[in-house]
Amino acid sequence: FHTLSMLQVENVKLLDRYTNRKAANGTLYLTATHLIYVDASTDVRKETWILHHHIATVEKLPLTTAGYPLLIHCKNFRVAHFVIGQERDCHEVYTSLLKLSQPAKPEELYAFSYNPKVSKESREIGWKLIDLKVDYQRMGIPNDYWGLTDVNKDYEVCNTYPPEIVVPRAASKAVIIGSSRFRSRGRIPVLSYLYKENNAAICRCSQPLSGFSARCLEDEQMLQAIREANPRSPFMYVVDTRPKLNAMANRAAGKGYENEDNYDNIRFKFIGIENIHVMRSSLQKLLEVCEMKSPSMSDFLTGLENSGWLRHIKAVMDAGVFLAKAVKDEKASVLVHCSDGWDRTAQVCSLASLLLDPFYRTFKGFMVLIEKEWIAMGHKFSHRCGHLDGDPKEVSPVFTQFIECVWQLMQQFPCSFEFNEHFLLEIHDHVYSCQFGNFLGTCHKEREDLKIFEKTHSLWPFLLQKKQELSNPLYKGLTAYKELQPNTLPFSFQFWCGMYNRFDKGMHPKQCVMDYLLSCMSQKMKLEDEASELENKLSFLDGPSPSEGSSLSEVGHTTSKTPMLNTPQDYEGEPPPVLSSGASVGDVDVPSGVDQKHKENLSHHQDLQDLSDTAHVLDSEVKGRKPQHH
Amino acid sequence: MEFAELIKTPRADNVVLHRPFYLAVEGTLCLTGHHLIFSSRRHDNAEELWLLHSNIDSIEKRFVGSLGTIVIKCKDLRIIQLDIPGMEECLNIASSIEALSTLDSVTLMYPFFYRPMFEIIEDGWRSFLPDQEFELLSSVTDEWRLSCINKDFSVCPSYPPVVIVPKSIDDEALWKVAMFRHGSRFPVLSYYHKKNGMVMMRSSQPLTGTNGRRCKEDEKLINATLRPGKRGYIIDTRSLNVAQQARAKGGGFEQEAHYPQWRRIHKCIERFNILQESLIKLVEACNDQSHNMDRWLSKLEASNWLTHIKEILTAACLAAQCIDREGASVLVHGTEGTDSTLQVTSLAQIILDPRCRTIRGFESLVVREWLQAGHPFQQRCAQSAYSNSKQKWEAPVFLLFLDCVWQILRQFPCSFEFNERFLIMLFEHAYASQFGTFLGNNENERSKLKLPQKTMSLWSWVNSSEELIKFQNPLFEANSLVIWPSVAPQSLQLWEGVFLRWNRPSKFLDEAQEEMINIIKYNKQLQAKVNALRRQIAEMGTDDRM
Q1: Is A205 part of the annotated catalytic residue set?
Q2: ipTM
Q3: Do residue A86 and residue A132 come from a single domain?
Q4: Which of B137, B340, B483, B531 is a plausible cystine mate for B334, CB 3.0–4.6 Å?
């Protein structure tokens, strides 16, 4: 990358905020896509790669004796603290990064220049991997009550919905259009998930434009149609995921919530998940806690409590559990909304689906779920993730919260997910990386206008290719667990160190059970192959077999469980002069998995042959399906 | 005393047992001298619950009409409820349980009555003798000797009969040092670090008092562990403030002037009622069924349990760091040297010494650093988190130690031969047991009670192959390295296996554990099969050639 580099600064220190060992010294490069830091002070070449799009903030701190500090906060919660020798260099890096991290135009996003050596065909096949129609078929749709409608094919009903939506067959076009005029941004009630066992459905929409007294016959008919699509249930729930006070305040602006008197047989309920601004500041507080230099236990727990983060996670989880219970236990359909129905509603509906249907806990299913409830239904990834230079008040960790809820479920149900924590982290990384087209823009129409299906690659084939390392060795298969009923007492929620302190390797367990089990799985395959080979050989063996079999070496060693050389932390607090000599002890730092990962990112530029292999694998998966997007 | 006198109603029918996450069961309740037994008496699916009276921490009774309800809270933190028809029966049973769970005399405890149902292969009372330990030591160094100065417990009542001290210090000097240390607990060897020959010693505080008394022999004793020109560290488990205050009561700490080769570091580890309160608050928080996240986090914080964990672990890491990284010898003490001192010395050994991470090695550690070192188990573990009667001496010192071990185990899941169940089992037996191991407060008391003759050792049972298998960690692979745990708050967790054990179903976590074992077991079988096949083919090859 020396040649690719746009800017190169020597003599840069990278401070490690966790250990008290001497800061690394090295060279910082800026390429078109990455900030790369090469540590020159160790024998082992150690590289740190930071994607420009991952950079959330860049700060210049006051001059220190070591030089000019530059503090970088990333959207994947990496914190990099550089110290640069010259002020001029520091300023140049600073201004370059500001520009590079948040481009002004979507065309400047990484996805439009990311060019793995993949054929045009496999790229197109990649986009067809996830077909939502197939998922509706899986739910048994179309059926007597539900059907796909093309009423939104030209985005006339709702420009933030996809062209194909599922509505009750009983709802006529007039009802749909009437209802859309009564719903914020035309986001009418549509089907999110149909629980085949009892016909109860989860539907989603935006808030009604009810103000203090307005009503709309078509909207009332729409809800009636949804309720009647579940003929055995005498009522349906309408769930407003906002706190009641927020919903009431909205009435003054001509919006609001459903009046139980106007709709037949609905049970209305507030759930009380806070809005995007509360969530944004909650995460900010959480990250401040995670970044504290050497906090006491009290500092940490008090900070964790004051951030409110786990309270919000629990609120989202509680809402998901409420929906799943209503559908499964009460056999009632549920209509969910918040304000616009693209943040809290997306969280809650996708979580409920995940609880109800084991398919969504597989690789493929989870991809479908994200495509369906988040991407297709117009969660504004571009704004919420701050892909472009825009309004910082639109940024909010709504999707991060969903990913965390899934992780919390994994802690309670370790055998029920096909994928592991790394899969969640990969997805979370790429929501911000803008390397793939999936999360660009704010809705389907915008992605069409940006031509992402023609110009960019889809994330999913890329992830499927890494399936082996992202899978959960403890997974017991689709049928082992059906619905999940998580415990939502507060003690069931843990702080997710692997996410928010992900790059502070010193805090993590030094031996990883998951990695060990994954290596067991690959060893298992090798052993099974060899066993059957040997058995074959034995059954046909009638002549002498020279030399073979004389060695009894083990096949495919599992990775050693011996941890990396680990080093003591600063246990002293305020080190007395004698102890400070501890720094002289030769601490060998083996390049960690973090840097490994980023080297992998590099590999997309250099060596992408193997990606085309996936495309072949995918061929079989999409065969016989109509392209969804064109 | 006859137990029968305490049992007015030995049996009650139509009792309903309530436990969290189980359906209520109806059955018969029986009281014996040492057990509360509940049997569902259903032929298809007979369920029995045996509860040691000594495991009962507190009981509450209430009545609705003539239906009585007894809530039993156990030292292992479980809570069960019994509905007993008939006011008189209920009152009788409640008062029997109360009396039987708070017997005064140790010799009435169950271990004196328990007859083992398993075959004893190895007498646990003889499994970990000081001589064996010294033999191991002598193979690597000749700078130490076994002293029998305490053979009849006359020098130090809380020390074992034999202790390991520097060779250059004779018994006469030890006598003098004993006079200078609180409770006569003179510095003795706790751990020898083979890698660099550095040692960890432990003792109680020196009795310097307000006028700065000194004892040349004491100085000589601990200096005997130093290499020429090297310094050592004294880790005082009290804050400087507390240590200074101790002088007023005749205690104190090593003055720089008299111990110029030693650097003192103060670490603040809490003791006694502060720890007991902490446990009570933590358990109360864990039992709170309210859905309020802020309340939970604030209660967890206010319990300070994890703060204590962090403090103890940090002090232990520091001791280990001094020995392994600084190449210095260490002396650890607090006030008496029977609580926080032992937490630090035993955890430091787990960090430094791979042997302590094996099952046998850990058992040996518990015997050496806790039982023989005179941790007063009987006082500390008399009551647990639910007790109303607050006595002065209870403290979950040993539980905190086990919790710290669990934290290290969680960070190094493949470096320990034992699993979490092993630690939980030790917690249970420290508080209530059929075995005599944890009875008494020191070796002196155990010898007077004739425990080795009259009771069964926990180790006899644990080390039987049938039991051992339950405590083995399938991920274990001997790791000879020093293991440095992280003590960052993000790295320390609530020990769910103990504190949430009865508050949530563990089905899904157990299944995961089982799955993990299966994966590893299957691979081992496959490997064996492949090896056998290869051998077979090789043999056929050589047969043919013959």
Answers
A1: no
A2: 0.95
A3: no
A4: B340
